[in-house]
Amino acid sequence: MEQKKNIRPSSDEPALHGANSRLVQQEEQRQDLGFGTKLNDAYSRLVNKNGSVNINRVNERFWDRINLYNRLITMSWWHFLGWVLVFYFVVNGVFAGTYLLVGAENLQSSVNGEPYGSFWKAFFFSSQTMTTVGYGHIAPVNFLSSIVAAMESMIGLLSFALVTGLLYGRFSRPLAHVRFSKQSVFSPYLDVNAWMFRVVNNRANQLIDVEMEVSLSRLETKPDGTRYRRYHGLKLERNKVAFFPTNWTLVHPITETSPLYGCTPEELAESDAEFLILFRAMDDTFSQQVHSRTSYRYDEIQWGYKFVPMFDSAQHGMVALDLDKLDDTAPAELN
Amino acid sequence: MEQKKNIRPSSDEPALHGANSRLVQQEEQRQDLGFGTKLNDAYSRLVNKNGSVNINRVNERFWDRINLYNRLITMSWWHFLGWVLVFYFVVNGVFAGTYLLVGAENLQSSVNGEPYGSFWKAFFFSSQTMTTVGYGHIAPVNFLSSIVAAMESMIGLLSFALVTGLLYGRFSRPLAHVRFSKQSVFSPYLDVNAWMFRVVNNRANQLIDVEMEVSLSRLETKPDGTRYRRYHGLKLERNKVAFFPTNWTLVHPITETSPLYGCTPEELAESDAEFLILFRAMDDTFSQQVHSRTSYRYDEIQWGYKFVPMFDSAQHGMVALDLDKLDDTAPAELN
Amino acid sequence: MEQKKNIRPSSDEPALHGANSRLVQQEEQRQDLGFGTKLNDAYSRLVNKNGSVNINRVNERFWDRINLYNRLITMSWWHFLGWVLVFYFVVNGVFAGTYLLVGAENLQSSVNGEPYGSFWKAFFFSSQTMTTVGYGHIAPVNFLSSIVAAMESMIGLLSFALVTGLLYGRFSRPLAHVRFSKQSVFSPYLDVNAWMFRVVNNRANQLIDVEMEVSLSRLETKPDGTRYRRYHGLKLERNKVAFFPTNWTLVHPITETSPLYGCTPEELAESDAEFLILFRAMDDTFSQQVHSRTSYRYDEIQWGYKFVPMFDSAQHGMVALDLDKLDDTAPAELN
Amino acid sequence: MEQKKNIRPSSDEPALHGANSRLVQQEEQRQDLGFGTKLNDAYSRLVNKNGSVNINRVNERFWDRINLYNRLITMSWWHFLGWVLVFYFVVNGVFAGTYLLVGAENLQSSVNGEPYGSFWKAFFFSSQTMTTVGYGHIAPVNFLSSIVAAMESMIGLLSFALVTGLLYGRFSRPLAHVRFSKQSVFSPYLDVNAWMFRVVNNRANQLIDVEMEVSLSRLETKPDGTRYRRYHGLKLERNKVAFFPTNWTLVHPITETSPLYGCTPEELAESDAEFLILFRAMDDTFSQQVHSRTSYRYDEIQWGYKFVPMFDSAQHGMVALDLDKLDDTAPAELN
C-alpha cells in the first residue's frame, strides 16, 4: 500500500498496449513444467532416472525435512523392519529403566529364583506389557509400577497400531511396476525418423488406462542473446492405451513441426537437452491411480539404432513376451 | 551416439516430406488398445471372459511373478483362509522348535503334570505368545526363552496386522458386481440391424455414473497383402448412464459408418474378430471407481436373435427385474 | 450362428438408409438416465427421497442379496453395535459349548471353588481367549482344549480385525452431509418463472467443488399414441460452485427452451413427472468424492411460492445462516 | 399446489420474452463461487488465511456441530493425544467404579497384601482388561465381575480400534504442504503490470499436477444503485504445472480484459476486494488429491513491489532454494 499509483495507462498509448498484450500472450503460450526458466547454469539433470527431482533446499522446517510418513512408506523393507526392531528395543529399554527406577522389587515374579538380572526382568516385563501378551508370571505390585504398566500398555497399543498401519500401507501401496528402457533411440520410422523409448509392464494384468506425457527441456537463446531453459511438449504417435499387457514403444516422429526437426546430436548435447517422461495409469486391483516419472538426457540416446522386438512367438503357439529384451537395440539406417 | 547423422532432410525433398507427414498422420489415427498390431498369428482371444489378458511372459522377476499383494487380495476366500491357517501353524511350529532348542524345561508350566509332550507345550506357548493371549500358565523362565518370546510377540503382532489388513482389504474391495450376457446378438434395431449385448447389475443401489467402451479387434489386410490386427472403436447408441438399477442393453447400430457394415458371419470368423468391452462405474458406498472387462468372440454372436425383456411387471403392481433372464434370447427377423 | 444372413442391405435402397440413420440419430439424442423407457405403468417414483431406487429384483444370488459389506457399512449405528454384541455372545457361546464337549475339567481354574457353573467358566475362558486378554486364572490343560483355544485366539483376532475395520470404515466414510428442501417451488425469477429447490450444507467447511445435475422424467406420447417415459436434462442457472459454506438455491428458469415451458400443475401430475437430482462434491478432509441423490415428484412442488432467505444478518454484525429456515417458503405472484 | 396457475405466457408478449431470456442469460454468465451476492454488508473476509470460511451457523444439529470425525482428524497432535489420555482414564475410572459396585472382593488378587486401595486395584484390573494385557495377577472370580470384564475387553478392543484408526488416519492424511506468501504484490511485468503472489512446496518431491484457480470478489454497483458482491475469475499467465519442486509465482497480467485494469488501491479497498485462491494437486506417495485454500484482501497487496528470487545458485554448483525468502519483496517501478 506504500506506493499508491494508478495502474491505468495514460490514454495516449494504445499502440504500446496492443504490443503489451502480444508479449503477454507469448508468455502464456510458453510451456513450463514447473522448473522455471532459470535453471540454465547447472548442467545437471532436472529429473533423475528414478523420478526424483534435483533441487537443493535451504531453511526447510524440521518436520518438512524429516517428512516422516513419506519416508517410512518409501524406505526399503530392510530399513523399515530394522527401524521397527530398533524402536521396539529402545522403547522397552526405556520402560525397563523406568521400572528399575520405581524399584525392581515391585515387579513380583512367580519364576523360581531370578535366572536373569533385574534389568532383564524389567525388560521382559516391559515387552510383555507393550505387546499386551501379559503372561503374568511377572506382574506389577505397587501403585507406581502399576500406573507405569497401564501407560505402557496403552502406548504399546498405539505404537503398534501405527507400525501395523505403516506395514499394511507399504504392502498395499499402489505402484506402477513398470520398467523404462535404459536408452532411448533415434530410429527410422515410416519414411521419417523418430525418437523412441520403450516401457514394459513388469507384472501381468494390472495397469489399465495408461497415459504418457513427454516433454523436451533444453537451453535456447533469446534474441537478446541470453540463454534460458525452454520446454516443448512432444507429440507422440500414440499417448494412451486402454490395456497394457505387454511392452509399449513410445514414438515421437521427427516431422517439420517437431522441435527436434533437423537437430544434430551435438546440438542436443550443447543445449543440455533432457526428455522428461510422465507416466499415469490405473491400478486395477483397487482402482487407484499410479504415477511414474523418468527422464532421458542427451547422452542416453542411441542414434541410428532401433529396438529389437520383445515377442518370441515360437513358444507352444502362444505369444511370449521376453522381459529381458527390453533394452535390446540393433543398428538401423536413418532416413 | 555412435552414428552421428544430421536428421535434417536435404532441402530438395519437400514433396516427399509432405507425403511423410501423411503416413505419420495415418499412423496416428490408427486405434490401438495396447495389444499392438502383431498379434495376428495366435488366433487365441486377446481378453478372456473374466477380463484377464492372454500373454505369456518370460524372464519375469520373482516378486513380479509372485505379485504377492495382488494375489492375496484376489484369490478365493477358501484359498486365503487356508493360507492363513497354514501360515499360523507353520510359524507356531517353527517357534515351538526354537523353544525346544533353547530347552523345553525353560518354559515353566503351572499345569499339573504335562498331559501333552514338550513339543506341544512349546507349540501352545508359541500360539499364546503370537496371538498375545498370554495366559501365563506356561511362561518363559530363562533369558533365551524370554527373548525369543519377546521377538515372537512382536512378530505375531505385525503378522496379524498384515493378515487383518488383507482380510479387511478383501472385504472392502470395491468390485463391479455386474454380469454380462453369455452371448451377444445381431438383432433388428429400428429399421437397421444392430450388434447388442446386455449387462445386469447384480446388486441393488450401488453403481452410478456407469460408462461402457467397446472396440472391435480383427485381422485386416494391408494393400501389400500382409495381415495385421486392427482396432475399431464402436459407436454405441448410448455409452453412459447416471443410474444402473436394472439391466442395460448396449446397442451398436450397423449404419454405413460402422466397421461391421455389410459383414457376414463368415467374414467375422475368418478375421478372428473379437469385441473388447471396458466397463467403468462408481461404487456409491465409498465413492470408489470400479472396472470390469470382458470380450465377445465371433463365435459368441447369435445372428438374427434378440434379447427377451427381463422385466416382469405382473408382481404386485411393482416392476420386477428377473436376473435369471439375462441370457434369454428369441429369434428375430433381421432387416 | 444359426441364422446366417448377410446384413448388407441390397444396393437399391439408398434412400431408405438415409432415413435409417436419421432414426438412429434420433435415438442417440434421447436422454436416458438408466431407467429405460418402459417404466410407464408403475406410477411409483423412480428415486426415493433418500436416494434409493424403486426396483424389485427376482432371482438375485444369495451373496448379492445379502450384500454383506455394504449392509454393515450403511446400517444404523444401533443396529451395527447390536449385531457386534450378538456376534460376540454367539461365538463365545459356541466355543463355550465346544470346551464343554472337550470336558470342562480340562480348563484348570485357579479360582477358589467355582462360583458359577462350568458353562460360564467355559464362556468366560472363551471370551478371555477371543479378546486375547488371557488372564490365565482359567487355562487349558489338555491337548484338545489347548488346540481349540489356539484356534479361537486366531479366529478372535481375525474377527475383531473385521469388526474394527468396519467400525472405522463406518466412522471415516465420506458422506454428503447435505439436506434438500422438502418441497420445490415454482417462483417468479427475474421476469420469467423458474422451478427451484434449495440445499444446505449441514456441516461447516467440508464440501468443495459441488456439482448438481437435474433431470425431468415424465411420460410422453409418441406420434403412434403409445406412452413412454422420457428424460430431459434441465438447464440450471448455475450447476457448479467451488465453495459451499451456506445454502444454495438451484434455479431452472422456464424459458422457451425448457421442457416445462407452458406446463400446468395438472399436466405435470398427469404425466407422472419426477425431478431427479444428482449431487456430487469433494469432501475436503480426505479429498474424497461424495454423492447424494434425491427426487421431487409433481406433488412436491409449491406453485407460486418462493423460498424465504436463510440469512439473518442481525447477529453481532456477522452473517448467520439459520439451518431451520431451509423449508420456509412464502407466496409470490408468478410472472 | 395451492396456487394453480398456468405459467405459459400469453401469446401477445413475444418481445418481452426475448428480453426475458437475455436477463436469464446474463444471470447465467455471472460467476459465483458459492457465497452468493448478498454478503455485502459484512465487510469481513470471505475466506480466512487458513482456508476456512467466515459463516456463522444457527440451529445446527448436535452431531453436525460436533462433526466428530472431522474434528478428531484435524485437531492438533497435542489435543488429540490429550483426548486419548483423558478417554483412557475416564473409561477405566468408570469401569473401576463398576467393579467396586459389583464388589472389590470379587477381584481375586495374587498380590501379597494390597499395597494400594481397592479403587486402584479395580482401576488397574480395568486397564489390564481394556488393553487386553490381562496379567492375571488380578482376576475376576464371580459371575458379575466376569461378565463386566468380558464386556470391557470387547469395548476396549473396539475403542482402541477407533483410536488407532484415527491415529493412522491422521498420520497418513494427504495434506498440501505448501506455504503462500503473506503478501501479494502489484509488480511490473513485461511491459504491463501484474498482480502476483507466490507459493512454495514445503516438502521435496511430493506434489505433481498442480493447479491454481484465482477469483476476485468485490462489491459492485448495479445500474439501479444497489450494491452486490460480484466474482471475477482471474486469468493467470500459467495455472498448471506438472512438477512443483520449487517455488511458483502466480501472475495475473493487468491487460485490458482484466477486471483490475485501471484500478487504484483506493478503489480496491472501497469495494472490499478479496482474491480467493484454490489450490489442487496430486500427492505422489499414494496418488491422492490434496487441496488448499487461502485469500488475499485489498490490504494484503504491496503496490509497486516485486518478489525477490528464492534461488541461491552459489552453493557448490547446485541450485539451492531458500524457503525463508518466500515473503521477500523489493520496490519496483510500475509500468
From TrEMBL, chains A, B, C, D:
What Gene Ontology molecular function terms does this protein carry? inward rectifier potassium channel activity
Give the location in the cell.
Membrane
List the record's Gene Ontology CC terms alphabetically. Answer: monoatomic ion channel complex; plasma membrane
Q: Which SUPFAM superfamilies match?
A: E set domains, Voltage-gated potassium channels
* Membrane topology summary: Multi-pass membrane protein
Q: Where are the transmembrane segments?
A: 80-102, 143-169
Its keywords, alphabetically, are: Ion channel, Ion transport, Membrane, Potassium, Potassium transport, Transmembrane, Transmembrane helix, Transport, Voltage-gated channel
**Which stretches make up the Potassium channel domain?**
102-167
Biological process, per Gene Ontology:
potassium ion import across plasma membrane; regulation of monoatomic ion transmembrane transport
Q: Which InterPro entries match?
A: Ig_E-set, IRK_C, K_chnl_dom, K_chnl_inward-rec_Kir, K_chnl_inward-rec_Kir_cyto
Q: Start and end of every Inward rectifier potassium channel C-terminal domain?
A: 178-330
A Pfam family per the record: Ion_trans_2
Coiled-coil segments: none
Q: What is the name listed in the Swiss-Prot or TrEMBL entry for this protein? A: Potassium transporter
User: What is the originating organism of this protein?
Assistant: Spirosoma rhododendri
Taxonomy, top ranks, is: Bacteria, Pseudomonadati, Bacteroidota, Cytophagia, Cytophagales
